[in-house]
């Protein structure tokens, strides 16, 4: 005969499926009252209403998730291409960079913002730079630099009252930071590089924090309190990721030969 | 043995494994609320719950290409990611006091004001009673009675046997009954 806990579970299943409890209870007349008491408690619990996630949070997280997915798809496509044609790709990338440099477009695009004709050129050049920076520490350093550039751009857009575009860049910043967080945990860094990178990440974090606080203050002053809250949330999220990255780098640098380990079983 | 799934879900998951935005959005909308509640009940504050929920879906993006369609059901797999993240957070930060009762809504939106007030009070007492459970018991109660998961799914999420889940469920309900007996409002209304 099953034990009491199993009989209770059968009653709970019967209750959940809308079946009669009569037969189940009839089999254990001595336990009837206790079973009914526990079933009542379970019914009360099922009516509890727990807080639902904030709609702004849901939207923000969905956008971040989709941005990361887009980055993964692009990265996978790039990897396939690299495997297939490494020298050809390198030649094209270098040639393209050289041509752009020669034409002076790089300099002209440096100050561009989303919506400007040269902004996509600027982002393409950044992607090429990332692709060509093969050293893991240098690549992570560049990613941190580009992430803080997004914050600076968001600040300029916010000052122009282009709130939605500014928030979109903050999302791009968070995506870069999330990628950086993963990168420092998995990249094959030398302990000495880890120590230097930790300092650079700290510096980048301070710069990004300052920029994000300025954007939030500007948005608040303009009456966009929800957008400001969203920026502040992004700042907290980035701080948490970057603190984790710095700790991993610190541990890696301190341990010397051992590597920082990712979260278990995730 | 692979879990049975409806064909549309298999098709959706195949698209999601390719990181297709439409499929990811659909999966996100299906699971975000329940994953948030699952985490909220364990970390017990909005900021941490939001942070960890966001991380669950970013981890999902990383892990989806390797997800096996014939393996564990997708929702169980997703809960497992959430479970691991919460455990990891506990290891790093330690536990914080439970104040779940402060965040439980007041209850029914219909009926006379005094009835609404009483129902709200009962729910707060019940939510407060949950704080007397262990973290595992609270997790089980949420999955079983609020998210309506069956014992097999819960056993997989919590990495326990069916028998262990049955026993834990019994202990949790018995504890709640004892705590509620000391807070007689709910019982009094039943009488």
**Helix fraction bin of chain B:** over 70%
Which residues of chain A sit in consecutive blocks of at least 5 with pLDDT less than 50? 257-266
H and E order of chain B: HHHHHHHHH
Cα Rg of chain A:
27 Å
Strand content of chain B: under 5%
Number of helices of chain A: 11
Determine the mean pLDDT of chain A: 81
What is the CATH class designation of the largest domain in chain B? Mainly Alpha
Q: Into which percentage range does the β-strand content of chain A fall? A: under 5%
Specify which chain pair forms the largest interface.
Answer: A-B, 47 and 58 residues
In CATH, the architecture of the largest domain in chain B is: Orthogonal Bundle
Terminal-residue CA separation of chain A: 40 Å
Broad shape of chain B: globular
Residue share in helices of chain A? Answer: over 70%
E-strand count of chain B: 0
Count of beta strands of chain A: 0
CATH superfamily annotation of the largest domain in chain B: RNA polymerase sigma factor, region 2, helix turn helix motif
Mean pLDDT of chain B: 79
Q: Can you walk through the features of this model?
A:
- The complex is a heterodimer of chains A (266) and B (191).
- Chain A is mainly alpha-helical and 266 residues long.
- Chain A has two domains: 4-46, no CATH class; 55-84 and 133-255.
- Chain A is 79% helix and 0% strand.
- Chain A has helices at residues 4-16, 22-27, 32-46, 55-84, 86-103, 105-109, 119-132, 136-159, 163-186, 191-221, 225-255.
- Chain A is elongated.
- With 191 residues, chain B is mostly helical.
- Chain B is built from nine helices and no strands.
- Chain B folds into two domains: 7-93, RNA polymerase sigma factor, region 2, helix turn helix motif (Rna Polymerase Sigma Factor, Chain: A), CATH 1.10.1740.10; 107-190, Arc Repressor Mutant, subunit A.
- Chain B starts with 6 loop residues before the first helix and ends with a helix.
- Helix content of chain B is 72%, strand content 0%.
- Residues 96-113 of chain B have low confidence and may be disordered.
- In chain B, 36% of the residues are buried.
- Classes of the chains: A mainly alpha (266), B mainly alpha (191).
């Amino acid at each position: 005969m099953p034990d009491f806990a199993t009989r209770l579970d059968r009653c709970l299943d019967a209750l959940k499926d809308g079946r009669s409890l009569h037969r189940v209870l009839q089999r254990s007349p001595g336990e009837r009252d206790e079973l009914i008491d526990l079933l009542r408690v379970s019914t009360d619990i099922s009516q509890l209403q727990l807080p639902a996630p904030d709609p702004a949070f849901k939207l923000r997280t969905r956008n971040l998730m989709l941005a990361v997915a887009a980055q993964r798809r692009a990265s996978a496509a790039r990897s396939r291409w690299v495997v297939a044609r490494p020298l050809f790709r390198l030649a094209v990338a270098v040639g393209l960079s050289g041509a752009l440099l020669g034409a002076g477009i790089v300099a002209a695009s440096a100050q561009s913002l989303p919506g400007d004709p040269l902004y996509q050129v600027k982002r393409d050049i950044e992607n090429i730079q990332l692709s060509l920076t093969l050293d893991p520490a240098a690549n992570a350093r560049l990613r941190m630099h580009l992430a803080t550039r997004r914050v600076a751009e968001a600040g300029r857009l916010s000052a122009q009252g282009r709130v939605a575009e500014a928030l979109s860049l903050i999302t791009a910043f968070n995506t870069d930071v999330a990628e950086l967080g993963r990168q420092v945990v998995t990249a094959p860094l030398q302990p000495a590089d880890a120590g230097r990178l930790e300092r650079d990440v700290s510096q980048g974090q301070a710069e990004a924090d300052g920029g994000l606080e300025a954007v939030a203050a500007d948005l608040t002053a303009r009456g966009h309190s929800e957008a400001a809250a969203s920026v502040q949330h992004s700042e907290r999220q980035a701080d948490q990721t970057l603190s984790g990255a710095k700790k991993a780098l610190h541990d890696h640098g301190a341990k010397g030969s051992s590597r920082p380990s990712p979260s278990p079983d995730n | 043995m692979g879990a049975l799934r409806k064909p549309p879900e298999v098709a959706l998951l195949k698209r999601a494994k390719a990181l297709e935005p439409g499929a990811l959005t659909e999966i996100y909308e299906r699971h975000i609320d329940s994953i948030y509640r699952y985490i909220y009940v364990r970390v017990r504050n909005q900021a941490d719950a939001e942070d960890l929920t966001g991380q669950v879906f970013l981890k999902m993006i990383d892990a989806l290409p390797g997800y096996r369609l014939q393996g564990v059901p997708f929702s169980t797999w997703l809960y497992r990611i959430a479970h691991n993240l919460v455990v990891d957070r506990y290891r790093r930060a330690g536990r914080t006091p439970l104040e779940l009762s402060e965040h439980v809504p007041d209850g029914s939106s219909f009926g006379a004001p005094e009835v609404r007030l009483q129902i709200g009070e009962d729910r707060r007492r019940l939510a407060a009673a949950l704080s007397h459970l262990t973290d595992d018991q609270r997790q089980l109660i949420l999955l079983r009675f609020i998210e309506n998961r069956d014992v097999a799914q819960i056993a997989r999420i919590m990495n326990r046997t069916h028998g262990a889940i049955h026993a834990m469920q019994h202990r949790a309900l018995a504890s709640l009954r004892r705590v509620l007996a000391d807070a007689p409002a709910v019982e009094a209304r039943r009488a």
